[in-house]
Amino acid sequence: MVRLNISRSNLGRIQFLRVGVAILFVILTVTIFYRQYLEFVTYNHLSQKQCLRRILYPGLRGTIYDRAGRVLATHKNMYVLYVDLNYFRQSFESFCKKNKDVQVQQEQLWALVHDALLPYAKKFGPIPFQVSPKKLLQHYRQNILLPLALSQKLPEDLYAKLLIQLPTKGPFNVGVEKIRYYPYGHLACHVLGFVTRTDELTTDNLPGNDLRTFFQTKEKGRTGIEAFYDNILSGYNGGDIWRVTPSGQEQACLLSIPSIDGTDVTLTLDIELQRVCEAAMGNYKGSISVVDINQGGVLAMVSKPDFDLNRLIPYIDKKTFREIDSSGAWLNRAIQGLYPPGSTFKLVSFSALLRHQIIKESSSAECLGAYRIGNRLFRCHKHSGHGLINTVEAIQTSCNPFVFKYGIQLGGQRLYDEACFYFLNVPSGIDLPYETRKICIPSPQWKYQRLGERWSDGDTANMLIGQGYLLVTPLKMACLTAALSQNRNVFIPHLVKPSSWNYAQAMSPTAWSILKKGMIGVGRHYIPFFPTALKTGTAQVKIAGENGYRHIGWMVGFAPVNNPQIAFCIEIEQDNMGDGFWGGQICAPVAQKFLRYYFKK
Fold first, then answer.
1. How confident is the prediction for the chain on average, in pLDDT?
2. Which of 223, 240, 266 is the last residue of a domain?
3. Could you tell me which residues are beta bridge partners of residue 196?
4. Residues of 425-449 as b/e, b for ≥16 C-beta within 10 angstroms?
């Protein structure tokens, strides 16, 4: 037997190796445990992100009704031709390996789709592409899980033919989408507003925020009621989570949460009264606002020129946009148009004169057709003059010299304070978006800060008759008239939800009676068939690039006189310069038509 002689040094090395191996084994064990158990959540999350996809889809938008339950905005079917770009993946990816130029890739994908559709176009007639090559490739790269709408608004007969002829396993399919539809077309277009398609879908209460997400487009309100109450009308989005292959092909739906349709909205608007008002305006450019004095609801709001809302759905083409833009029809003149109110502002002027006891019912002045203030001669609209008249007659005839004689004593500050007392210096607060905040009620301080000039008696004279720097919206004048009809100082209109508001008595019963008498006299002249209180006005505006002035015709009023139900404001813009344009003359026939309809009904 041979005895091995192992030295102490060799034994130490073996022991060292044993310890080393043991340590490495422990490290390996800890690492495996860490990877398999402690980092399971992280790797599982990465795995989900790689093989899971989320698809979001919106709920159906709510319906809009008028006060009588008539449908103003709903949905109708739109027939669509879709393409599944997954069908072309193999041939297109092979092409892309050889051609890296993006422009060439766009053209190739477009050609593949076009060639596949060509047999059906030859058989049934032209089938237009409504997507560009760029959009086609973008959808392929970003949203290949979703079909792409290739042609929208297919004729119903073409849709039926394609539905029968298209193979189930081919790249093309037809379907039905719901799009916004406005049964009354152009009626109340500025009030209702319109929607556009967007992929800005919220993900509240939907899992998978960290997953790659695809969107089906939703309708989003852009103007009018559609925009102001968009959150209510839109409802809640739904979604699916799919397991997909590494190449992006669907395997199974793991989770599906249904969408919730939007809530319906009922307006205070009376669409039949709206129709009568719009017909009464004819081809005039301007606005009409009619409000319910007791409830605060807007019964009609007209802005001309207008447009057919259905031309904007599902998208606005360039031609339609240019037509609307060039005509100025985007502007809602009732809440966005700023104009000098002319003699309708004399309601404020007389209110201030009566409040400060500068005049009373028996006060008088002799109108000779003009009134000198400083070095300037301010004329009356009746060049021959009104002769000797009292307060009530001055309101009825809208006499400028009477207002100048007494109004200069007021001064600019008290006149400004009176306008602010009636809240003419702030927006109406109506539940519509984009109401202008640029109303201008000038004051001595405003003029000095803006122009560096002191207020003059000429500025007071201009403001007394609704001219000068003064700019208001037609709806604000309707609100002023509605407030005065109840001897109140404020009126806040609404279309859906009323606002809570506190008001004060506008003036003493005696002063209110004087103002009302004057307005009744105007009403007898222009609306002889029904007891109406009115004030008319004609304002001058300077148009850039034109010599001379154009005119704005105004009429504000309430009816019936003894138990007021509605108040209104008519504003009509002179299209071409010339003589013979007066507020009462232009607006009276318009007022007669809708007042006959409303009170006959």
1. 90
2. 266
3. 220
4. bebbbbbbbebbeebebbbbeebee
